[in-house]
Amino acid sequence: MASAKNLEKKQQVVEEIKSKIKDNTTVVLFDYRGLTDEAAKALRSELKNNDADYKVYKNTLMRLAFKDLDIDLADHLTGPSAMAFGQDQVMPIKVLSKFAKDHPEVILKAGVVDHEIADKEMLDKLSAIPSRDALLTMLAGGMIGLVKDLAICLDLYAKEKEEN
Fold first, then answer.
1. Which residue range is the domain that position 54 belongs to?
2. Are 124 and 62 in a shared domain?
3. Given this model, what pLDDT does residue 12 score?
4. 11 and 55 both lie in a single domain
5. 64: number of CA atoms within 13 Å, CB side?
6. Taking residues 77-86, what's their average pLDDT?
7. What is the structure's pLDDT at 1?
8. How far is Cα of residue 15 from the mean position of the Cα atoms in its chain?
9. What is the CATH number of the domain that holds 87?
């Protein structure tokens, strides 16, 4: 039987996992089996550069944390699993997906985005969304086009009024 000290440590880890899930907008489970130490450091660095991080926990402890929060991801907690998390809805997913292209040993399993479960297919769709900056640039470009068209129309209208 496990000692009270070990049970307390495990409960602390479960509470830590629960707080990571609650405090972050996005949580992604991924398989890291076969990832070298150098590649793992590169992944952590890339995630940190994008205000995200990952940590490896025991599947049984993650299962308990998800169960306590009524999140059903138990089917995805097989084999070695790591948990990436971040405040941005898509950035941890984008970083992991991009990293997985160069490191096939990284396999995205499932996740939680804005308190909703996202399966592998949904994670793939979310990874294809442009970054916030790219979306803002597209929006600004569209707005500039409208303002330009309005300026041309007003200029033509003013010229027409001058002629009359």
1. 4-129
2. yes
3. 92
4. yes
5. 13
6. 90
7. 55
8. 21
9. 3.30.70.1730
